[in-house]
Amino acid sequence: MTGPVGDLFVEYHASLVRMLYRRTGDRDRAEEIAQETFARAVVAPPRNPRPWLFAVALNLVREEGRTAVRQARKLVLFKAEQPEHSATPDDELERVERIAGVRAALDALTDRDREALLLKAEGFSYDEIAATLGLARGAVGTTLARARQRLMAAYRGREENADAAS
Amino acid sequence: MPHLDDGVIHELLDGEAPSAQLGPMQQHLASCAECRARLDGERRLRDDVDGLIDVLEVPAVSTPRVVTPPVAVRPMRWVRDLAWAASVVLAVGLGYAARGAPIAPVTSVVPIAPPKEIAADVQTNVKVDQPVTKARKASPPAAPATPTVQAASGSVGALAGDATDRRVDVLAQKATIDTGAAARTVALDPNAASRANRGAAPPSVQMLAGRGGGRGGGRGLNAAARETATLPIDTISLPDAMRRLGGSIRLIDGLVPERLESQGPYVRVVYDGPLVLRQQLVDGKIVFDMLGPPGVAADLLARLRARVKE
Known about the structure:
Chain A is mostly helical. Chain A is 80% helix and 0% strand.
């Protein structure tokens, strides 16, 4: 990939894959959707590339989510990546559990709240978040405030439930 | 000025508040302890949330799994000691028998199960079920086997050598008993090495729950684990797994499995960790247990077990 889109790839690919991985929980899927997004950028080079790329990618995630049984697809994917941690078993399971908790808490949010948070985590400005998600600029602060509160409430709620169950 | 709403507070925290409103906001904050407290609280919330999201780091780039040769399961120390003692007794006995007239070479051929695990450890091309001359060195086959005649010749050196050989034999047979079918699979099918290697996971993957999370009345899976630990493991698809479990499957909520495997009657859902949610159909119900790394805290496992859902 060369030219303007090649530059976009270099600049945004890692960030896009990270956001998509956080959104989907599936690295291979994140890579595929990122590839598809950049392929579309080749066809119709965007003027405001970052919001455009992330908006297209998030739309692809939503479309895919509507037409597929998500869990089933995750299961049939064989993931070869291995943890590169040299942590103790307890640390490793703590990490796994924490990841599961965060992911479940993210899943408890609405699409808009979740995506606003993930875009913010990628360093998006409020203007970019508004452009990517089709929000009014003035609604971004409220959206983020609500998303943060709900995420933390969901995460802590799961922790308390797990503690109660054990 | 009225109290700052949450959206405005987060705009401030994120450095996104319109510059025209900064002055009035700061004036209000200077005079309103409640809003200052909320600002502090929301700042901590934002930082905590950022920390949570950072937990979701992208895994490293996929790399091919390295298929390592199967590791021999060493017999326990007392077995080795016993084998040594048996070897010495046997060597002395043979030496005593060989002190008189020359003894004809032993020609009887007795099929002895080959020493699979040790053979796999030392040399992997040992043929399974190949008849082995009695009292012959078990491995490696490439080296000419020490003729039994040597042992019968009365030579102390030969006897000593033979005693060593016999020790190998005894150990090998013990290993065969211990490891069973998984080792046989390794020896028969080089491609099965990786599967059998995963099957040899029990030394590094510890049984952490005896029963399916307290559910189901199936037999104790600890006992079952001993029975099935030697069975080969194969990667299977989701439909296959669900078919084995009567059209359903248990998963840990919030975790993405790495793969699905079958081992004997079990379906194994393998997660990062390594963490294995093992399940089987018993009387129409799914009974499951969890396997994790050795030394893991029980409460951690209990929390994960509480997340198992159909």
